[in-house]
Specification:
The complex is a heterodimer of chains A (186) and B (293).
Chain A lengths: L5 H4 L2 H11 L11 H5 L10 H9 L3 H5 L3 H4 L5 H5 L6 H14 L6 H17 L4 H12 L9 H6 L13 H14 L3
Helix pairs in contact in A: 2-8, 9-10, 9-12
Chain B lengths: L3 E5 L10 H13 L2 E5 L8 H7 L1 H15 L8 E3 L2 H13 L3 H8 L13 E3 H9 L1 H7 L8 E4 L9 H4 L9 H8 L3 E2 L18 H17 L4 E4 L2 H7 L3 H8 L7 E3 H9 L16 H8 L1
Parallel strand pairs in B: 1-2, 1-3, 3-4, 5-6, 5-7, 7-8
Helix pairs in contact in B: 1-13, 2-3, 3-4, 3-5, 6-7, 10-12
Classes of the chains: A mainly alpha (186), B alpha/beta (293).
Chain lengths: 186, 293
Amino acid sequence: MHVINLSKTRDQEFISRVEQESGQNLSLCYQCGNCTAGCPVTFVYDIPVHQIVRLCQAGQKDAVLGCHSLWLCASCQSCTTRCPNSIDVAHIMDTLRHMARRDGYATEYGVKSFTDSFLESVERHGRAFELGLMMLYTMKTGKFWTDVDLAPAMLAKGKLGFKPHPVQNKEAISKIFKRFREEFAQ
Amino acid sequence: MTTLRYAYYPGCSGLGTSKEYDMSTRAVCEALGMELIDITDWSCCGSSPAHTVDDRLAGALSARNLVQAGDIEGVDAIITPCPSCLANLKTARHRLQKPEFRAEVNKLLERPVHGDILPVKSVLQAIVEDVGMEELRYRVRTPLKGMSIAPYYGCIMNRPPKIMEFDSHENPMALDNILEALGATVAPFNLKVECCGASFGVARRDIVERLSGKLLNLAAENNAQAMVTACPLCQMNLDARQNQINVANSTNHVMPIFYFTQLIGLALGFSQSQMGLEKLVVSPRELLAGAAG
């Protein structure tokens, strides 16, 4: 059994950061479990979503930012929609992912690599380039056989372009990323 | 009839994996008297990856498009076929009402956001609210008689309701009503707003195989001959990954997955190739031949 000593590990600064960045009042959660009941991905979670909120209330930074669930949330908005206290739970999950990234936690390398590949593709071309994104993902993860079975049908149907469709003003988008790193990335 | 004019945001997948959605949307909108003006040099809205990295980055990627849509004269709204683009554009618009958020996003943009931002709607919402079911029914030339279809909305077309502001978030009816107007039979389907596994197809295919598998099973149990969706990612998971799902779950579904615009187009009298039906991985040819015969 995993036991947490609440008084020794309570990180007040973590609680304030989650509340401030997500704009949500964590103490409104009374653990009804409605978010978990409707969550479609609980079956792959190591910590269900209502327990993540509880751990946030208790300032358990390591347990929260180090869990797998953050990376497996599908952003389906079921939790946010059904919370009886109107807590934007999905936004808390997003906020925790932002913090986990910044603080160097990455428990689902494949998911992180997919996100990174997608955004690199957008930074480079201004739009998502699906084939290029898959190539980047393959290089990052070494998972060559991922979806290789889909390629023939997608290519035959003209759904996987060999070339990106860049926007004309590509710099405008790459500059968004550049300014973001200068202004906000820590 | 007065023409409805919209700023159109096609979304990246419309250039690739959901070409047939973009094709059929453009054709159907024109036929329904909706003029689409592409947002000049539109760029990616950030899709789901951006908001998992940073709200301000996601906000800026969407905001660039919102600002450029503002250059188009004589339009009252931006419309987009893709629910993920829709959710990002609407969320950005919502958060940009807050001066602090707007100020931070503006630090990232070449052209900052000033003043009002055009409202954003899905193509589905525009067809339901601006064209209307009565008009649609009136324009049907070849009703989809004898086809039983499960209406699948996906998770974010209507959620969260505070931002999406369209239809019911637990039991939406827009696609049901469209199917009915087209003369098809609406199969009972109580997983209308359940998640298909979203963008986990690549990194965690097991999630998509389980969640999309559940959707296909229910549609089949309820004797649906096909499913209809409004989302490129749902369509891809259910259609292109149907074989992967069958292998993983020991099932043998052969379930065509249409975009709703393709079905509207068929009923309005467009040909199968005009609606890009040959681009669907699970072929609907047999089903359509049966319905016609």
